[in-house]
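## retry 2 of 3
previous attempt timed out at serialization; input unchanged, resubmitting
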Amino acid sequence: MTTSSRQGYGFGTLPVFLAGISTILGAIMFLRFGYAVAHTGFFGVIGIIILGHLVTIPTALALAEIATNRKVEGGGEYFIISRSFGTTIGGVIGICLYLSQAISVAFYMIALAEAFTWLEPLLSQQFGIAYDPRMVSIPGLVILLILVIIKGADLGVKMLYIVAGVLLVSLMMFFLGSPVEGFDQGMGSLTGKIERPDPFIIVFAIVFPAFTGMTAGVGLSGDLSNPRRSLPRGTLWATITGMVVYVGLVYKLHISASPETLAQDPLVMVQISVWGPAILIGLCCATLSSAIGSVLVAPRTLQALGADDTLPGKGLNGWLSHGIGKANDPRHATIITGILALGIVIAGSVDLVATLISMFFMVTYGSLCAISFLEHFAARPSYRPSFRSRWYVSLLGAILCFLLMFQINFFFATIAILVLVVLYQALRIGKRGEADVASLFQNVITQATRYMQIRQQQRRADVVAEEWRPSVIMVNDRTFDRRSPLIMLHWLCHRYGFGTYVHYIKGRLTSETFFESKAIKERLLKMARKQNSAVYMDTVVSPSITSALAQTLQVPGVSGMSNNSILFELTQQDSMDVTRSIVDQCKFAANSDMTLMVLRHCEMHFGSQDSIHVWLTWNDKANANTMILLSYILLGHPDWHKAQVRVFAALPKAEVEETQHEFSQLIQEGRLPISQKNIEYIATDSTEAFRSLIYERSGDAALTIIGFNMNGLEERGPEVFKNHPKLHDVLFVRAPRQIKID
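## retry succeeded, writing output
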């Protein structure tokens, strides 16, 4: 690779590994693993290590996956998150991540001072002054910042080589050491611990920061020659190596000292080591290396935040994103990081802050795992990582992160979530119109819908035979002149059914009519959002309504099942030509075995929606169940929640008794969703008498449902839908066959 194509300093995989492993083998390992063994026993600490890596390994795999999908630039984890979730969500997590990294610098410098506690008696005896950890942490931080600002990341990486070497030597000295004087290895127990130990989750919370170092090398993404290769390899190897070292170190502590000794002496490793000072030197180097890793990574995260205009003020973003030299060192961001870290060091204690910051680390890790999980199911063509994690591994990591947050500290977890929400709302104002996480979820939903539609289609025949529910389609060119048809479709598909509304545009498909259809579709979608409608909206351009019907009837339903019903509309005032057109459309649609519904609406717009009357006649044996079921589907919408359904069975005198017995049996079996008191049986042998009965009983009904059949439509034509002119809104229904109601 030529120099011109190199990114930043052009580092390889080794700096990523060293940044990660030197942070993993840090202050917590030297100062708190003995405490962990004392309070949870050997098996308990193994459980903590496993649990911690159930969080970090999925995160490392997710990082490796996402990093191998795209060109990774400066900003490390922030870049990866923001380019997958969008800069609003990414900015929120990035700010939390930056604060975690910046305050970690202070945390490690305070821990560095623990390596110099041996100065306490010397200072007290020789100079009469008490040892204050800030005597070491403040000048140490200032020197470190000056070196990084002057020399940049190149110096930091060179120091990592030295630190890694010292850590290796100090650990060898420890593993070659002997048990504490007076300790009998034979008396130890794998479950042995002190009396009244701290709860497991408290110990886990104290030890967990040791596992967060595995992503330290990711922050060098902008300085790597080949991030897609170096990030996954360096991060995974650092994670695996750290886990192996942890297990070995815990076992060595267990067989070398009693739980009481481990609990009382934070530096018990000094007593076990072949040469005690090697541990102090190792602790010093470990904390210094962790601080170096954080002071290299945090400014680069802040620089990337500025480059994306995430922070308030263009001037501030420009100043922070400014880099120095060919490697674009974030000098300004380093200064800000140093000031923040110095303020925390001067305060002297970061216990509470460290707990809160660990929550933000959890949020970051959980988000990375969630991205990997969602990307697996989104199946975007642009997402083609050369390394793939497993979706269930990523899901496990995401769930554990958010569960452990609340297990460790419910109060701080709640604060962390609230801070995320506040930051999101603030950044959202400045980044209006950005898709953010919605686009990722949209892809996931698209894939889930695709899968379910295919599965639904494969078992469609069985579903139709077992259960009927309306999947209604409507093709109409009077969309913006009449509101009742769309309202009816909305009611039918609110809970139990599916609705597709297609606005018909007469003409041939040209660029002009195509863009007209797009504009009308946007208008339809705005209308649907305003009405909170569950109807699927679309448009069709076609030379005639018949050809439009032919196209639409052959399109699969959006629910994954074929459309089984079609809705037409007219008014009593419409001309005879309009009514004839509806008759012709019904005849045409009947060829596709559809349930036909014709809504004749009026200016009442369904009145107060307090009553639905269903009229059954001797011609409605195939229609009856569908008509009754449709009435109860309408009751499922809140607009009709006060309505009552009444069923009138107008039959020849000879059939009344038989039909009444049949209906009673169906009601008792629960196959008709009505009660006996809602049915009225009327004996009539005259068409004129029947019409009078309908007006007499249903003249004030909000909606009347009446059946029709194709023979009657052939014979009487438009008169079928012009019939009963004194009724308000009428829904005419024709079912191709009798459906089962179980």
